[in-house]
Amino acid sequence: MNNATTATHETIRPAEAAHFGALAADWWDPKGSSAMLHRLNPVRLAFVRAAIDTHFGTDPRALKPLAGRHALDVGCGAGLLAEPLARLGAQVTGVDAAAENIVAARSHAQAVGLSIDYQAGELSAIAPREQDLVCAMEVIEHVAHKGAFVAALGAALKPDGLLVLSTPNRTARSRLLLVEAAERLGHVPRGTHHWDDFVTPDELRELLAAASLTMSAPRGIGWTPTKGLHLSDDLALNYIVTATPA
């Protein structure tokens, strides 16, 4: 990883964009190729909602804590996170590397009556600035030039904005369960994960610091037979963090 990489570098890997674009048609099918994301999304949303309330001082009972605010969902896919952010009151922009995902996202948003600005392309070229909230869920492990990607995330934030980022950790357990077992058993499509590209919490903290962002203590996203996917102190598989401009 090159922390000195600037935001002028391209971060999209064409092969990764093609892989996820090929999944666009059934992205919203909870039993389809994105089934794992459907199970993961409520856990991520719970974390995001708590982070919003803590950072912006909003009432946890409020239905639209993001009213009047702008939110950016990076690597938005077909809108699994962008749509809930819009329902929380935000004016949402979704950015994705795969044009096929953007087509699916626009179609679904229109069908459910949500106004979301979806754009396909390189983050640094199209991301609007001055965002109150920027989310990048399960994205950094798929990009080239991770330093440039994080710099572009930071550049999109307001000085008092909030970044939420989640990613698999690079551990022996994540190699076994997230790559080998999950793909072999069909829980995620083959070729989705490349273990060498996973980022550890310490590496992520350094990447964020290089972009003048301060990272919170990470929370794990774990799995047990009794709880399923849930927020945890165990960081071995996947973790989620907030970051704010230093």
Summed up:
With 246 residues, the protein is an alpha/beta fold. It contains eight helices and nine strands. It has one domain: Rossmann fold (3-Layer(aba) Sandwich), CATH 3.40.50.
Task: Describe what you observe in this structure.
The protein has 246 residues and is α/β, with parallel strands linked by helices. It has one domain: Vaccinia Virus protein VP39 (Rossmann fold). The chain is built from 8 helices and 9 strands. Strands 1, 2, 3, 4, 5, 6, 7, 8 and 9 form a 9-stranded mixed β-sheet that branches. Helix 3 links the parallel strand 1 and strand 2. The longest helix has 22 residues. The two termini are 22 Å apart. The N terminus is likely disordered.
Series of H and E elements? HHEHEHEHEHEHHEEEE
What form results from the Cα inertia axes? globular
CATH class assignment: Alpha Beta
Report the span from N to C terminus: 22 Å
Mean pLDDT equals 91
Strand percent estimate: 15-25%
- Within CATH, the superfamily carries the name Vaccinia Virus protein VP39
Taking the sheet with the most strands, its summary is: 9 strands, mixed
Number of strands: 9
Might you state the CATH topology name? Rossmann fold
Q: Tags for this entry?
A:
246 residues; alpha/beta; Rossmann fold
What topology does this entry show?
Layout: H1 14-21, H2 35-56, E1 70-74, H3 82-87, E2 91-96, H4 99-111, E3 117-120, H5 123-126, E4 131-137, H6 146-156, E5 157-168, H7 172-184, H8 201-210, E6 213-215, E7 219-224, E8 228-232, E9 238-245
Parallel strand pairs: 1-2, 1-4, 2-3, 4-5
Antiparallel strand pairs: 5-9, 6-9, 7-8, 7-9
